[in-house]
Amino acid sequence: MAYDATKMKDFEIAEAAEKNMPTPGQWQERLGLEKDEIIPFGRIAKLDFMKIIDRLKDKPDGKYIEVTAITPTPLGEGKTTTSMGLVEGLGKRGVNVGAAIRQPSGGPTMNIKGTAAGGGNALAIPMTEFSLGLTGDINDIMNAHNLAMVALNARMQHERNYDDAELAKRNLRRLDIDPTNVEMGWIIDFCAQGLRNIIMGIGGRMDGYMMKSKFGIAVSSEIMAILAVARDLKDLRERIGRIIVAYDKKGNPVTTSDLEVAGAMTAFMRNAINPTLMSTVEYQPVLVHAGPFANIAIGQSSIIADRIALKMFDYHVTESGFAADIGFEKFWNVKCRFSGLIPNVSVITATIRALKMHGGGPKVVPGRPLPDEYVKENVALVEKGCENLIHHINTVRKAGIKPVVCINSFYTDTKDEIAVVRRAAESAGARCALSEHWLKGGDGALELADAVIDACNDKVDFKFLYPLEMPLRQRVEAIAREVYGADGVSWTPEAEAKAKRFESDPAYADFATMMVKTHLSLTHDPTLKGVPKGWTLPIRDVLVYAGAKFLCPMAGAISLMPGTSSDPAFRRIDVDTETGKVLGLF
């Protein structure tokens, strides 16, 4: 039964659906899990990854479906809603299906974006737990990350206060850390722009080492990126031990292993390695695991979640952050390379609203009413905006995949506008389906489900955009030209010097190229919409995530700590003091 999404808020739909949500014990029976493979956490549960993958290791993988999107408006175009709707539609077709999505950060949840649970009748539940910390993975990441900073600052204080003989008595060797070359900062899971740049250690000699420092949002932590790409606990431990915290005065990296803190950091992560089991409002299983930034990290749910889901389900839906130029590109050239998994199909989520923006429509501003162009028929804007859709279709096809375009339906869409999108998608070599999952749940997603089932029968000639042997600057050039549509790449002297150093050092030969740019444009400039021509991608720096094994070329200014708006979501969130229920989540 679909709820009336036109009258009920998302948290009200979630509350109604949660009354009949399967318990951990019911999930165990329904999914054929052994008793010790499911770990109850109240109304939800974690899955013991290692036990499940060991038991099912010889079972063939199911169909692997990735969900991406066109370049979005600042409001987002509903990838999670589409993912949940597709799972519900496949469920209506009697398919054994599940999904994997990212865990939302408290920063966006309490700011402008709100929860990332989907919406309407295409929603992940329980919504309150999902939005407010779930089973503690982000808290574990914050503890592990900040412990590294505690170890660093304490070590710098002790090395300042004691000579080498005194350090040796304490079983410490001098690391000679350069206070002007510290790579890591602290993290907190809120959008706190006042913490972007700080001075710590103010006081006396016993109050830590005084130095400049910084905060990032929790999901930007390298540990979150590691959780997304690790294959198992051993791999996680090894990667955490390679994290570069700072550099010494000779320019050599100082790692968490050098600080002898990697083991304790991993201890905090021992439970976080297991995915959390949730549900759609129509009671299909949804795994939630990892939530890395898509701008600067991989922007995917975990390889671990995909590995066990492909064993547990005949059809598995996974979601990539942002549009195909970011999310799908990283899924294609990084996640699939790390995991060895090959997708059967990619679903490109599109809205008439976003296509109108790319066709020259007025600026879309969160928190303000949409201009008339977005709520009244304007076929010309849609037709022009389809250039952006076609660009993303071509990107997916370069991987050897024939995509499915999902028109995520809004009540303001008209038949003529939808027809324009269908013609454009099909002429570009993609299937196209209109989906009303927000309004109708699985019943509204049957056309999408059928298109995806059909597409999963296509032969996939999967190929990466570039070989791993290709030097870093050539990889960036290939991504810029083939995925973004740039004429080329320009490098600042500092960024090029770093790139040359990484290219000449065999230690970085197998590092992934993790591009950093805005999600609001194919270019580095968020104001440029559609498919801009005649531009060059500027690279101003290259970050290194040694544990995750990422080299991150940075195009434009991307902050690891977002700011809180003047009208954040937390102003409308409260608790019913009679029932304890959380109100106002969206």
TrEMBL record:
Q: In which pathway does it act?
A: One-carbon metabolism; tetrahydrofolate interconversion
Query: Which superkingdom does the taxonomy of this entry point to?
Result: Bacteria
Q: Name one GO biological process term.
A: tetrahydrofolate interconversion
Q: Which Pfam families match?
A: FTHFS
List all membrane-crossing ranges: none
Where ATP binds, per the record, is at T73, P74, L75, G76, E77, G78, K79, T80
The alphabetized UniProt keywords are: ATP-binding, Ligase, Nucleotide-binding, One-carbon metabolism
Matches recorded under InterPro entries? Formate_THF_ligase, P-loop_NTPase
Record field: catalytic activity: (6S)-5,6,7,8-tetrahydrofolate + formate + ATP = (6R)-10-formyltetrahydrofolate + ADP + phosphate
The catalytic activity of this protein is classed by the Enzyme Commission as 6.3.4.3
EC class, as a word, reads ligase
SUPFAM superfamilies referenced in this protein's UniProt entry, alphabetically: P-loop containing nucleoside triphosphate hydrolases
Gene Ontology molecular-function annotations: ATP binding; formate-tetrahydrofolate ligase activity
- Provide the family line: Belongs to the formate--tetrahydrofolate ligase family.
Recorded protein name is: Formate--tetrahydrofolate ligase
Lineage, opening ranks:
Bacteria, Bacillati, Bacillota, Clostridia, Eubacteriales
